[in-house]
Amino acid sequence: MVQLLIKSVGSGALKEWFMVELQGQIMSRHDGDLAGNLIGDLHFNKKGVPILIIGHHILYGKVVDMEKPYIVLIKEESQTAMEDVAMETDHSHKTRHFTVNAVIKRKLQFKTRPKPIISNVMKKI
């Protein structure tokens, strides 16, 4: 049986994160991973509708409550020294624990196809 030590970050309320759900895939112009890079701008209008702007495209979405919440865990390892008196040898023992960083209760769902953002271009006279 595996036992995991999970602890909370403090006595205050946990941070709430949103999950973003997109239809299709996001491709980069450059060959590389998208992790850690800025993808677009997320805005909310006065009615609370999420608006995602990626490049020259705009997506309109909605906020949906998830059936089951997710938690965001951070894995931490610490090394403690254990002394065995009988053998008179030192052993180091790694302890692993997880800290609850945030909870995800809602997601931003973008189901529609992106619409192009077109600015007005003046015609030549």
How would you summarize this macromolecular structure in one to three sentences?
The protein is mainly β and 125 residues long.
Mean pLDDT: 80
SSE order, one letter for each helix or strand: EEEEEEEE
Class based on secondary structure composition and strand pairing = mainly beta
Per DSSP, what share of the residues sits in E-state strands of 2 or more residues? over 45%
Cα shape: elongated
Task: Kindly provide the radius of gyration, computed on alpha-carbon positions and rounded to a whole number of angstroms.
Answer: 24 Å
Low-confidence segments, given as residue ranges, are none
Task: Give the fraction of residues assigned to helices.
Answer: under 10%
Number of strands: 8
Cα(first) to Cα(last) distance is 79 Å
Instruction: Please report the number of helical segments.
Output: 0
- Which sheet architecture does the biggest sheet show? 4 strands, mixed
What secondary-structure arrangement, pairings included, does this model have?
Layout lengths: L4 E4 L6 E8 L18 E4 L5 E5 L2 E4 L1 E23 L4 E22 L4 E2 L9
Parallel strand pairs: 1-7, 2-7
Antiparallel strand pairs: 3-4, 4-5, 5-8, 6-7
